[in-house]
Amino acid sequence: MPTPLARPGGHKEIDQGHTLHPPADRGHADANPHACGPGVRHPCHGHFHHEHHHGAAGQDFSRAFAFGIALNLGFVVLEVASGWWAGSLALLADAAHNLSDVAGLALAWAGAWALRLKPDARHTYGWQRASILAAFANAVLLFAAMGWLAWEAVQRLAQPQAVQGWTVVGVAAAGIVVNSATALLFLRGQHGDLNVRGAFLHMAADALVSLGVVIAGALYLWRGWSWLDPVMSLTVAVVIVLGSWGLLRESTRLLFDGVPERVDPLAVRAYLEQLPGVERVDDLHIWAMGTTQIALSAHLIAPGGPLGDAALHRIAEELQHRFGIQHATLQVMREPITSLHASSLSDFGRR
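The chain above was modelled as a monomer; its predicted structure follows.
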């Protein structure tokens, strides 16, 4: 993956030519005195980025994570004690899932905190990928918890046991409130940050488990069906696994530098190829630096010469506006690089 120099801050950077010069004004676009223009024979490079920190859309979810962890830890203690006394597998399973949620929230919090660490000479992108790792770990943890729940439910189906119905219903109803309240803390950021989405899904799933426990407990009180407790647990586990599959798939994709799901790579290529003066696009790469930042690098083959600073600025702004790509590194060349590397890695979507 390319590693262009990135400075923290809320500004754009332009690397035009071969040397990156210190900016004269940190509040505006940096400009290299060796600007690209007619008569410049070396390749013209443009590197732009728009920084966002603290999760989706610049939001800081630290308080939400802290509150959610404290609330769920307290509820885990209540559920374990109540489930043990009532003899309810569903309550104990819900407590185990709540405990996994505490670990998931802690992982997501660590990932969000890593986004705030500044880049250095050895980590030119900072530690943004930690947020992807946290989302992936959250998905794996969720699947593991549901696997355990399903196994215990199958075991309990073979030997149904009586439970304290009113205790089950009361504690699980409190769980709906606790988990729903925690999920709502992350509702705003779930669409813009995969890491926050992982935390949201974890808590929303737990609220669904609690709802299933309430239904099972109520039906047990009404009909005396002891087998319903494990059946409901198994059903909820399947629903949660199906609903969380997208989180596991997308976090795995990002770990291996795949194009984020919300970006259409063919549309990006089509936009770059229709630019005035651009004959073709080589070495187009799009990847996620973290759960909120997307980067792009490409060779723009322009036989007529460099596009110039103003054009590169417009391209970067369009990439940000149309596709949500905050970091764009563009190299403008008169002729393509005739190498196996250039031809083998940039053929997708070729017209």
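The longest strand covers residues 280-288.
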